[in-house]
Amino acid sequence: MRERLMRFNFLTRFLTKIMLNILLIFFSLQFVLIASFESSEILNIIGNVFDGKLNEEEVKKLAEEISLIKEVYDVEINEEQIRKIAGDIAQINEQNGGYWKAKVNYYSLLPEDEQKRICGVQNNGRSKNGDAKPEFPILEKLANNDDCVTEIEFDARENWPDCSSFINYIQNQGRCGSCWAVSTASAYTDRSCIQRSLNGLSTSIDDPSLHFSSTDVMSCSIDYDGCEGGWPSKAWQWIQSNGVCTGTDHVWNNGCKPYPYEPKGKAEQVKCEAECKNTDWTTEYSEDKHLGIFE
Questions:
Q1: Which residues fall within 8 angstroms of residue 112, CB to CB, at 6 or more apart?
Q2: Domain that holds residue 20
Q3: 294 and 164 in one domain?
Q4: I need a labelling partner for 159 at 20 to 30 A (CA). Which of 72, 84, 252, 278 fits?
Q5: Residue 140 falls within a domain, yes or no?
Q6: What are the residues facing 126 on neighbouring strands?
Q7: 192-212 in b/e burial notation, b at 16+ Cβ within 10 A?
């Protein structure tokens, strides 16, 4: 009797495991089917709106960005919205005389309130904590030379090819109005690379010591939450006076102070600290600083 009971219990557990595995496979297939349906639907919408104006790679990238926005912001982007954005971009391209070409990108697809959230440049007046806009000397306006009729095209990536990977890279600032700090740190990184190239030094984008920290700028050049906005001009002044440490984007997560915010999730305030946040980084914060004068 006891042996039969043990066999029964074993059989029951065995069948239960089989049923659980079947259910797991079923729900996994359902998820895949739903995801495939949604991806197919997005691709159809893009195809209807742009009607062959985008190549296969551009269509795929746009579909991925729409899916990411849905995942991060829980926002459905419908065909009407994409048509409006596409119409606005077409109008821009008609008005710019063909000098450059605007395209649909991740940021143009964001909800309006999220677009405002990440636009953190303070152009005038005072910041949210009352800080006044920094004063800078106004350069004299240069008179136009009527004899100069030559149209000049300048691409920094072509002019300094050793630094094209740096110049061409755009860091994702996440859900934080830190564009004023991210752009300044990125421009400083580019200019540092250009100077190194002119001096015959290494300009490898794979070297984390050649990337400079927007986190250091964002958290230390002002005395309030850098996600609330700031001034690029003040950031440049701070770098010149205090120096900036190394730090890559969130994905690479390298250097002394890497960027803390991923594309999704709330951006919590980062405090200014005179130490590296990356515990694997062997250079001390004070020694890692680079001043605004390029070596």
A1: none
A2: 1-109
A3: yes
A4: 252
A5: no
A6: 132
A7: bbbbbbeeeeebebeebbbbb
